[in-house]
Amino acid sequence: MTGIGVCLTGGNTTVVKTAIIGATAYTSLDLIELLVRHPEADITHLGGRREGNPPISSIFPRLRGTCDMELGGLEPADLAEEPDVVFLTLPHGVSQEYAPRYLKAGLPVIDFSADYRLRDISVYEEWYGKHNDPGNVKQAAYGIPELFRDEVRGAKLVANPGCYPTSALLGLAPLAAAGLMESADIIVDSKSGVSGRGNKPDPGSMYCECNENLSAYKVGCHRHEPEIAQGLGMMGLESPDVFFTPHLAPMDRGIQSSMYVKLAEKADDEELEKTMRHRYEDEPFVTVRPGDDQPRTKDVAFSNRCHVAVKALRGDRACVTSVIDNLAKGAASQAVQNMNVMFGLSETLGLH
Amino acid sequence: MTGIGVCLTGGNTTVVKTAIIGATAYTSLDLIELLVRHPEADITHLGGRREGNPPISSIFPRLRGTCDMELGGLEPADLAEEPDVVFLTLPHGVSQEYAPRYLKAGLPVIDFSADYRLRDISVYEEWYGKHNDPGNVKQAAYGIPELFRDEVRGAKLVANPGCYPTSALLGLAPLAAAGLMESADIIVDSKSGVSGRGNKPDPGSMYCECNENLSAYKVGCHRHEPEIAQGLGMMGLESPDVFFTPHLAPMDRGIQSSMYVKLAEKADDEELEKTMRHRYEDEPFVTVRPGDDQPRTKDVAFSNRCHVAVKALRGDRACVTSVIDNLAKGAASQAVQNMNVMFGLSETLGLH
Amino acid sequence: MTGIGVCLTGGNTTVVKTAIIGATAYTSLDLIELLVRHPEADITHLGGRREGNPPISSIFPRLRGTCDMELGGLEPADLAEEPDVVFLTLPHGVSQEYAPRYLKAGLPVIDFSADYRLRDISVYEEWYGKHNDPGNVKQAAYGIPELFRDEVRGAKLVANPGCYPTSALLGLAPLAAAGLMESADIIVDSKSGVSGRGNKPDPGSMYCECNENLSAYKVGCHRHEPEIAQGLGMMGLESPDVFFTPHLAPMDRGIQSSMYVKLAEKADDEELEKTMRHRYEDEPFVTVRPGDDQPRTKDVAFSNRCHVAVKALRGDRACVTSVIDNLAKGAASQAVQNMNVMFGLSETLGLH
Amino acid sequence: MTGIGVCLTGGNTTVVKTAIIGATAYTSLDLIELLVRHPEADITHLGGRREGNPPISSIFPRLRGTCDMELGGLEPADLAEEPDVVFLTLPHGVSQEYAPRYLKAGLPVIDFSADYRLRDISVYEEWYGKHNDPGNVKQAAYGIPELFRDEVRGAKLVANPGCYPTSALLGLAPLAAAGLMESADIIVDSKSGVSGRGNKPDPGSMYCECNENLSAYKVGCHRHEPEIAQGLGMMGLESPDVFFTPHLAPMDRGIQSSMYVKLAEKADDEELEKTMRHRYEDEPFVTVRPGDDQPRTKDVAFSNRCHVAVKALRGDRACVTSVIDNLAKGAASQAVQNMNVMFGLSETLGLH
User: Fold this and answer.
1) What is the least distance, in Å, from the CA of A298 to any CA of chain B?
2) Chain C residues within an 8 Å CB radius of A66
């Protein structure tokens, strides 16, 4: 049914042609499956460094029979056909080498790395190391459409956000934007599935080290802390003071964040929930749940959705919770949502 | 090798004879296995309500061949032989019916329920309902030997603590006792394995509802919040203000707690860790780990151990983490530790 | 974005209108999600017995915001709008009450139960109990399109096959149809995820009883044994002698079957694999893999796909393996595939 | 409580002194925990190749506070104190280098590798490669005490059996020894937890590749097939024809084997079960269960126990099932059992 080198798509003639550079990452597997099914998108190139350019389905057996396209090079010159958009799924530090080449060739870029997320280069360099393409950081949109849709719409470069920050910011945005929370003492306690570690075999990613196990890691020193703070700042919070603690939980996918904030003034569950519902009433991918019906990661697994809830704690504090699928809304499906926005397609196209 | 009605033990002649009332609970399975292997303890009675008094090994197939003892009644009069100590593994509200009967018969009781944990009856009744045995609450020791060993030593009634409070209090005790943390804004974010829900089949305990899933529950309204606050008060913290959020994680066993506290004065990692090490240097079951080597639930699974760590967060806050096995140090093995203390045995006997 | 009582669909005007009778079963959750996304299908009725006709999304929180339709009755008269097809996701024995009512009303039925699968009523009654609608059994197509497409195409009643039989028959069909395997000594050893047990809370479905656990069950007496034998018979094998052993494995989804057969004459890996490839070369949902690249359940999770492989064992035996997702190709997505075939739609529409 | 370089033990004076050579393997973690708790054994040396001879507890954080002994060399000369027995937990091919050195030094050896299991050197070399110590193979006892206790009792070298063969042989032994099963067509379908892969980080051992996944592997070509056949031969079966298929299941520990055999003459469940019960009536670690109460891996997890069951299948076939913990009865605890037998200790000492 499918020849080598062909991805099954809907058979449309006028579609967005896409290239994925870094096709062997876990996030790319999700991205490929989304684009193969997307009614208005085609994959025209998969760039990845593997000896002999094997078909992607030899790396991800899930793709056998649905995407047997062969891997090609990473450079613009390696692409036989010019795509309409390039997804970079490369590691931090590597993206900033490739993004300028594709942008120079006039191609819009959606970048999965952290390289274009932090607008203050000195903050980036403190957490990630030297930045070699600071010029393009200025023009990058921070790609959470629910919060920054207008920026994304006109962007040539979209920085696809980190998984933890997506989870934290979608939860806190309504209170931050409405001026209901203070800037001080924002505690973000997040739990992630193991796929967040990527697909490089290292001791910490082994089944017997992760299964039946849960722990915090990088307490007080995870790179997503400044990204969350920046996002809250973009929503109007002055000098937000964020304490972020990530945890590894024994599951493939999902991020659950419990966030403890101080309220600007006393409020009850009803008021807080109403603020959240108001903020998201037109958003197709965000669902506000009552504080007594807590969001579960499984409720959004394999989808682009985010569920949030809020509970007042003795009046002057609140606990906001949110769940997303770290590989989907936290990476691949949010990237497709950004693509839909950039190309003027229906925002929900090919997503659920 | 083993006849019906006999539990394999070491064959000692002078041992502590124990009865378990409520033998079909999950915590009882752990307790039975611990007592069967304990070199100085014997099980002489298993009380549980099941039609026809089947052997306990028909309920827990793990016990086939190691404990095939038949279930008997719950009342003192049902016990053929007088035990030296009675473990009550009954639900909240039920324990308070049976404890007075056993105490009246002169038998020491180690109670797994919440019935004798909260010293302020009005607090108990706010969270659990009517208390019918307030008189015995006064004499109950709160059984975390590392913190209240002297109380336990002389007690006739030990309230075996809640799993979450054990995890939280072992983590926070060193800072609380040393006056290093403030009473305000104590955030306890805990994640528990599913065995914490017990072994009654209900929708929320089903495999397909728990696996690949993580969520908060009872945000702002879990019964262990006042128990944690009481424990901190017992360590000298005045009117501690605790915000406790439990989470359900997809694993059998284990509790990990991340706790965010304000420091009474600025401190760094080294000072905080030193305080913890000092507090626990003679404790066989507590290990202090560096803040960059975070405790994992698997490191203490199936053991009576607790691992803790602390990280200073920008000087005036700290994140304390701790892990225990909720069925072991959070229930059954801590009960055996309490028994060892009560009977003047080596505290580590039969435990690891 | 979505009002109460509305399921998001593509917005097409000429679509297949579907009703699901038994909407609160696990398989229905998958079916609802598939139909919501299907570009040529709409859900017009969800029948299920729950007090007060709550929205389906209150039972399956995954559906919040994508399908908030309220539950209605189970009877033809309860349907406000006449559907084009009815999916019955009712238990064995109950389907046979409802199917005749819908068929009488002129509506095609796709039935998830075993009630119309076994053509020999006496065999059905031996394994499942009294059959009250034997008349309709005769006209039922056995809905594995890859094997019985023509039957399905013209059917008014499709018996959606059991999950284990789908897995076994897709694996064995090529050898059986080509006359390469003997009828004697067919051993089918299958391992299923826990969702195969359905969503009724019972002790055997609890997380702590299934996690970190694996066992055989119903050895020599599982109802799918005669269904597998019947299927092999339909492919030309005379009096096939099937020994079927199901196992419960600690995962949500997936069936892996290892099948040991005697070869009619000696063959090597290459010949056997070639036979399988030839049989499935035009099938969009079946992938044949080399015997040294064994199919994994995760490769087909959440998809309508089946991966199969074959290895010759010392010349006169073979081990055939196959994997499917028990809720998808083993239930809901195969039902949608059957619907596509029945209504002359592209067979892959809304599936992947 | 515990100084660096000391393992907590019972404090006995006359104990078996043990050395573990290859201490960083997963099986060694179990072995260390067993020996630390064993009332009549002490660990005097842990040999392992790690830069700087770190404490074993830095490799296995579970051991913090219970065994903080530092790693030393692998050679006899590296041992400060002469042990009474040496456990070799080295890979296949490496053990045969070290075993002769320890044997020459007069020290009994319990070897975890395959190097001394297969008595026919040509079979070994076909499956594992060149053997450099064939002389010692002859004197090696095959260490399943339940089957070959006398051999083990007098041995200087014990080949600790493979995990799969232990599971298969304990299941089949009663029928084989009683002449009830045929030599032809013995199908062994086994499912193992991931710890069976060891603790080297490779792609196939990663959490996201194993979780929610199940597959066969090495169909028709796994090295344990000849070991199972040899074991059946040792029990009197002539030229047993074994077809062995291993599977990887998403759990840490446990092996479940379903074995399909032809009966020498027709038999029913009762006769077969009786034969099994008779065979194991004096064995403390083996439990025979009724065929309708199938053994589950969790029932024996973290123990030295094996549960078995048998069901007759239409008279002339049977399905035998067995479960063990692959790291315990399949490796470490069986090794301790062998040690107990070799040193004339009570066979159950330190085990459960």
Assistant:
1) 5
2) 305, 352
Chain C contacts of B26, Cβ < 8 Å? 208
Q: A153 and A138 share a domain?
A: yes
3-state DSSP of chain A: CCCCCCECCCCCCCCEEEEEECCCCHHHHHHHHHHHHCCCEEEEEEECCCCCCCEHHHHCHHHCCCECCECECCCHHHCCCCCCEEEECCCCCCHHHHHHHHHHCCCCEEECCCCCCCCCHHHHHHHHCCCCCHHHHCCCEECCHHHHHHHHHCCCEEECCCHHHHHHHHHHHHHHHCCCECCCCEEEEEEECHHHHCCCCCHHHEHHHHCCCCEECCCCCCCHHHHHHHHHHHCCCCCCCEEEEEEECCCCCCEEEEEEEEECCCCCHHHHHHHHHHHHCCCCCEEECCCCCCCEHHHCCCCCCEEEEEEEECCCEEEEEEEECCCCCCCHHHHHHHHHHHCCCCCCCCCC
Question: Which one of B212, B287, B298 has the shortest CB-CB distance to D212?
Answer: B212
Predicted ipTM? 0.95
Q: Are strands D141-142 and D157-159 parallel, antiparallel or unpaired?
A: parallel
Instruction: Give A38: exposed, middle or buried? Use CB within 10 Å, 0-12, 13-18, 19+.
Output: buried
Please check whether residues C86 and C186 belong to one and the same domain. no
pLDDT string in tens for chain D (352-residue length):
222 233 444 444 569 999 999 999 999 999 999 999 999 999 999 999 999 999 999 999 999 999 999 999 999 999 999 999 999 999 999 999 999 999 999 999 999 999 999 999 999 999 999 999 999 999 999 999 999 999 999 999 999 999 999 999 999 999 999 999 999 999 999 999 999 999 889 999 999 999 999 999 999 999 999 999 999 999 999 999 999 999 999 999 999 999 999 999 999 999 999 999 999 999 999 999 999 999 999 999 999 999 999 999 998 999 999 999 999 999 999 999 999 999 999 999 999 9
D249 touches C at CB < 8 Å: yes
Residue pLDDT, tens place only, B106-142? 999 999 999 999 999 999 999 999 999 999 999 999 9
Q: Is residue D266 part of a domain?
A: yes
Q: Which residue of C28, C50, C200, C208 to mutate against B (max B Cβ within 10 Å)?
A: C208
Name the domain count of chain B.
2
Q: Which domain holds residue A315?
A: 164-324
Say if residue A169 is in the same domain as residue A311.
Answer: yes
Q: Does B212 touch chain D (CB under 8 A)?
A: yes
Q: A187 and A226 share a domain?
A: yes
Q: Is residue D181 included in any domain, yes or no? A: yes
3-state secondary structure of D202: coil
Q: Are B131 and B50 members of one domain?
A: yes
Least CB–CB distance from A206: residue in D206, D212, D250: D206
| Interchain pair C284, A65: CB under 8 A | yes
Kindly state whether residue C257 falls inside one of the protein's structural domains. Answer: yes
Question: Given the DSSP bridges, would you call strands A186-192 and A255-262 parallel, antiparallel or unpaired?
Answer: antiparallel
In the residue annotation, D210 being an active-site residue is answered as no
CATH number of the domain within which C117 lies: 3.40.50.720
pTM here is: 0.96
Question: Is residue A109 a contact partner of residue A157, using CB atoms and an 8 Å limit?
Answer: yes
Are residues A124 and A185 part of one domain? no
Q: Identify the CATH number of the domain in which residue A238 sits.
A: 3.30.360.10
- Clarify whether residues C137 and C173 are in a common domain: no
Helices (H), B133-268: 134-137, 145-153, 163-177, 207-210, 224-234
Q: Minimum mean pLDDT among A123-127, A201-205, C107-111: which range?
A: A201-205
In a domain, D44, yes or no: yes
> Do both C63 and C128 map to the same domain?
yes
